[in-house]
Structure formats: structure tokens, C-alpha cells
Design goal:
Elements lengths: L1 H5 L3 H7 L15 E3 L8 E3 L21 E6 L6 H17 L3 E6 L8 H6 L6 E5 L3 H6 L7 H5 L9 H4 L3 E2 L2 E2 L2 E7 L1 E5 H6 L11 H11 L16 H13 L5 E4 L2 E4 L4 H16 L11 H9 L5 E4 L1 H10 L8 E4 L10 E12 L5 H11 L6 H16 L9 E2 L6 H10 L10 H4 L2 E5 L5 H17 L5 H15 L8
Parallel strand pairs: 3-4, 14-16
Antiparallel strand pairs: 1-2, 5-14, 6-7, 8-14, 8-15, 9-12, 9-13, 10-11
Helix pairs in contact: 2-3, 2-15, 10-11, 10-18, 12-13, 15-16, 18-19
Length: 489
């Protein structure tokens, strides 16, 4: 989901590349071979022989060409990320003095991307989310970078679970930055203040309900859990419970996409929301909360639990809300019943190259995106960021999942750095090992989230709602308006 991915660690977004997710449609040049430059081994055009006797003229080296690219750049209020990105730009231009880099602080918005593309105003590469792969590919708004990808010497070290979100029909349309499986972040201090025992990591819906009800204090404006109730975030939040109940968003079979979220599992997940709202009185009185509202309430100590990707929540709670690492805990999503899976929506941040960019611009954008991947520069940048945060009394929040395989040599190098500092947040391995993730649907996911948000708002505002009828109505709308037009090859 967009907001959870927007607040990924400063370092991830900047020192290693900078941004979120995507898809593509016009590849880089022919005859690529891998090189081992500081860009992590990105593809480079090589001279090739023609079919005749005389060799063809060597292609012009891309470093000899004047190229301008516009890059995804952190927002004005993200000072640390901008500082790290500026450092990366300086290093990149020392190696590629032929490249002019323009900074774009446009961040992906599903309602704006069409206009940006039509007006040729989209940057050479931009951020997006795991949900957007199908959407961007269908509309031709993401370049096909398959050839560039296969020329990248470190592609086999990339986290395959995350990267697969932007591979369709064997073609590559985006580059993963990092990812997450949705968690429940718990304010242990608030629970202790209310003399409420923290549940075990192997918890259930009943445990969540009982904990939320016990800690809620509506008279003081404190909720047990801040479920998101407005914007597409609301439908995204609820989908975790759909997955935990064994449901799915859509089915793909025989080249057709069919709505599947009007199931008995979906009814059960909505009934749980009814219990949290009407039986436990555990959600905020003003329940129309977006991502920023819910996470802000957690950081300010006004709710005991929030559901999101952990990094953004922890960053606000520890670095803005004044909480300490011992005051918070990152839980897997609760299982629907004892012995069930702790399934959370799996998402991530990706970078997509603009299909309207020239071949050279696309290749240079690919080199820039992967410039710090697997590099010592990134390891150095991580440690400097940790040290700078420690000097300012702040914490560094590592991503739960990143572009590299955690058990790789590179992953182990990063862990050894983290272990040297007391201001690096440590995820409890007992919690982490229970986390289970299910990818978001690949077709019209944002529209589905929006449809579910309307139903959730009715559940929160009306005590008696015909849940199955509402789900059937939403499924029929999604089928007729979106899914029927999709033909999967």
C-alpha cells in the first residue's frame, strides 16, 4: 500500500536508490553485457559483429553521450533522505560526468500518473507500489526493461519474492527497492499503563479483540486499535483479515479475472470489524482515519495498536513520538484462530522507468537506480546514517525486507553493522519467524480497495449491515467495470 511504503527507511530510499514501485514497456539497447562498475554491474552496450565479413562499427560508448535524466527525489520535508540522495548524485556524476540529473519530487499518485504520461511530465523513473504492476503494464506506462535486467550481473542476488511482483509473462517492468508483510505494531507502554498483559506473538483474532477492548479508554480519547477508515488504506487494512480468514481478492483462470472477495471468508472478516467497533468499542470515536492519521495516533500514544508496514510506524513512534524501542513491539498479523497462519498483505516499493524515455535515458536510469545496490558505498552510507542518527538521539529502523536476499553475503554484512549499534531497532526473531505474507492482487487493486472502503465505512457507521449483500454488490461492480475487460495471456 502506498503510505506504508512511502516511509521506508531513509537509507533505503536514498543511499541505495530512492522511491517505490512499478512496471515498464520499452527496453534498453541490444547486445548488452555485464560490467562490474560501482553501479553494481549494470548492463553496457558492447560492439558486435555483423553477419558480413567486416565488423560493424563499434557502438558509441554511453559515457560519451550527453544524456539527461530526471530522477525520483525525496520530498522537501525529508531532509535526511535528500542529503543521502545528493551524495549519491555526486558520486554517480563523478563516474558519469556526461549525465545531467534533474530532481523530480513528484511521488506516484494513481490519480495523476495518466496525466503525467499524457503530458510527458513523468520523470525518467518514478516510484510506485506492488499493487500497481498490472495497472501500469496494461496502460503502457512502465518500460519493458527485460534486456537491461538480464544484462545486470547481480540479478540473481535480488530478493525473488519481491522482484516477482513486477515480472509478467516473463518480462520485467520494475525494480524492487524493499518490501514488507503487514504487521500489527503494539504500544506495550500503553498496555502496561492500563495493566493489560501483552499477548503472545502466536496470537489470534480473539486475542486482538480482547486486548483492544481492555486498553481502550474512549473517555480519554484512547482507542485499542486504530483501524484505517478512509481512503484506499481502509480496504488495504481490512484485506489482511480477508487473507487470514482464507479468502482472496480475485481468481485468475482460463484467461479471465473473477471477483472472489464476496466469500464466506470475507463475511467473517467484516464480522470481526463489527465486533471491534460495536462490541468492544475499541476503535477511535472519529474512525475516518487515513494512513497518516492512524500512524500519527499511534506515535502520539492515542491508540494501542495500528496495522501497517512496520518501518514507517516505528520511525514516527521512536523518532517523533518519543517512545523507546522497549515501548513498542512488532507483531505478525493475528491468526483467525489458534494454529492458523499469521498472514499479512505483502507489498513493497518499486522503481519504474518511463517508457517514453529514449533507449539511452532508460539505460542510464537503470544504472542510476542500481548504482548503490550491493555496493560498499551503501554499507558505508548505512553506517554513517546510523551514526548521524545516534548523534541526534534518533533511531535507525531497518527495512523488514529489502532488495537483497537476507541470507546473502550482503545481507550478513548489513546485519553485522546493525549489531554494532544500540540505536538500531531490532525486530524480535520470535515475531519475525511467524510472519506470513500474501501478495496483493495484480489487477485493479486500488479500485478494489476503494470499493471495500465504502463497505467498511458502512460497518463503522451502522450497527446492522447486510454484509453479504454489500460484498456481492461490490464484487458485481468490480467484475463489470474492470475484471471483464481483462484478458490474461
Amino acid at each position: 500500500m502506498r503510505k506504508s511504503t512511502a516511509l521506508i527507511s531513509c537509507l533505503m530510499a536514498a543511499a541505495l536508490l530512492s522511491g517505490c514501485s512499478g512496471d515498464n514497456a520499452a527496453s534498453g539497447g541490444s547486445g548488452h553485457a555485464a560490467t562490474g562498475g560501482s553501479g553494481g554491474g549494470t548492463a553496457v552496450r558492447q560492439p558486435h559483429a555483423s553477419g558480413g565479413g567486416a565488423p560493424a562499427p563499434a557502438e558509441e560508448d554511453i559515457k560519451d553521450k550527453k544524456i539527461t535524466i530526471s530522477i525520483y527525489y525525496p520530498l522537501p520535508d525529508q531532509a535526511e533522505k535528500r542529503k543521502a540522495e545528493d551524495d549519491k548524485i555526486a558520486r554517480f556524476q563523478r563516474e558519469y560526468p556526461n549525465v545531467t540529473i534533474n530532481k523530480s519530487d513528484w511521488h506516484y499518485n494513481v490519480d495523476e500518473i495518466g496525466v503525467k504520461m499524457a503530458a510527458s511530465e513523468a520523470p525518467t523513473f518514478f516510484n510506485t507500489f506492488a499493487t500497481e504492476a498490472g495497472f501500469l503494464v496494461q496502460r503502457g506506462w512502465a518500460a519493458d526493461i527485460t534486456e537491461l535486467w538480464h544484462g545486470y550481473e547481480r540479478k540473481d542476488d535480488i530478493n525473488p519474492t519481491l522482484q516477482s511482483q513486477f515480472i509478467q509473462d516473463g518480462k520485467v517492468f520494475g525494480i524492487v527497492q524493499n518490501g514488507y508483510s503487514t504487521s500489527t505494531i503494539v504500544n506495550k507502554k500503553l498496555l502496561a499503563d492500563k495493566s493489560v498483559a501483552a499477548p503472545s506473538y502466536d496470537w489470534t483474532w480473539d486475542d486482538m479483540l480482547n486486548t483492544a477492548e481492555a486498553v481502550a479508554d474512549p473517555g480519554k480519547g484512547i482507542s485499542g486499535i486504530a483501524l484505517m477508515g478512509k481512503g484506499n488504506e481502509s480496504g488495504w487494512n481490512w484485506t489482511n483479515f480477508l487473507f487470514e480468514a482464507g479468502g482472496q481478492i480475485q481468481a485468475v483462470e482460463g484467461g479471465k479475472v473473477t471477483a472472489a472477495f464476496n466469500s464466506d471468508s470475507a463475511v467473517r472478516a467484516l464480522q470481526f470489524y463489527q465486533k471491534l467497533r460495536w462490541e468492544a468499542n475499541a476503535i477511535p470515536k472519529d474512525w475516518a482515519l487515513g494512513w497518516d492519521d492512524a500512524v500519527g495516533a499511534f506515535a502520539q500514544g492515542r491508540t494501542a495498536m495500528v496495522i501497517a508496514g512496520a518501518e514507517g510506524v516505528l520511525d514516527q513512534a521512536l523518532n517523533q513520538g518519543g517512545l523507546k524501542p522497549g515501548d513498542v513491539a512488532t507483531y505478525p498479523m493475528p491468526a483467525a484462530q489458534a494454529g492458523g497462519k499469521h498472514t499479512g498483505v505483502m507489498g513493497g516499493d518499486y522503481l519504474v522507468i518511463n517508457p517514453n524515455a529514449s533507449k539511452d535515458e532508460q539505460e542510464m536510469a537503470f544504472r542510476y537506480i542500481t548504482y548503490d545496490y550491493f555496493s560498499d558505498n551503501y554499507l558505508t552510507a548505512v553506517e554513517k546514517d546510523i551514526q548521524a542518527r545516534r548523534a541526534e538521539g534518533k533511531y535507525y529502523i531497518p527495512p523488514q525486507m529489502s532488495y537483497y536476499k537476507n541470507d546473502s553475503e550482503y545481507g550478513r554484512k548489513l546485519k553485522s553493522i546493525y549489531d554494532n549499534y544500540d540505536n538500531v531497532y531490532k525486530y524480535d526473531p520470535e515475531s519475525t519467524k511467524r510472519m506470513d505474507g500474501k501478495p496483493e492482487a495484480q489487477y485493479n487493486t486500488q479500485e478494489y480497495y476503494g470499493a471495500m472502503t465504502g463497505i467498511i465505512q458502512e460497518v463503522f457507521s451502522q450497527k446492522d449491515v447486510d454484509l453479504k449483500a454489500k460484498l456481492d454488490e461490490a464484487a458485481a461492480m468490480m467484475q463489470a467495470k474492470y475484471y471483464d475487460a481483462i484478458h490474461v495471456r
